[in-house]
Design a protein that fits this description.
Blueprint lengths: L1 E6 L2 E4 L4 E9 L7 E6 L6 E6 L5 E3 L7 E6 L4 E6 L8 E7 L5 E2 L3 E6 L1
Parallel strand pairs: 2-11
Antiparallel strand pairs: 1-3, 3-8, 4-5, 4-9, 5-6, 7-8, 9-10, 9-11
Amino acid sequence: QVQLVESGGGLVQAGGSLRLSCAASGSGFSTYATGWYRQAPGKQRELVAAMTTGGTTNYAASVKGRFTISRDNSKNANYLQMNSLKPEDTAVYYCNAGGVKGYWGKGTLVTVSS
């Protein structure tokens, strides 16, 4: 069982940066692929970035080159560095471990003003 808690969301102007953190408790975090998803109002939840246990990363086309996912297994944590933020990045961001049928945090709101 893994529990995930996101932090780092907030209000930022377009062009700014935020760093989201995901703290994991429980056992086995390092054995799961991890990822960040987001859900904007009226839209479906979508994958933003993912990282395998081996360190291979995958990004949505809309964030490639602007967002970077990382993880620190020694701290049971992963991170999403978001640069050059755009208003369309506004959403609730969710941390995930183990894929869509795995474990989810409750989300952190990111609002990007124009």
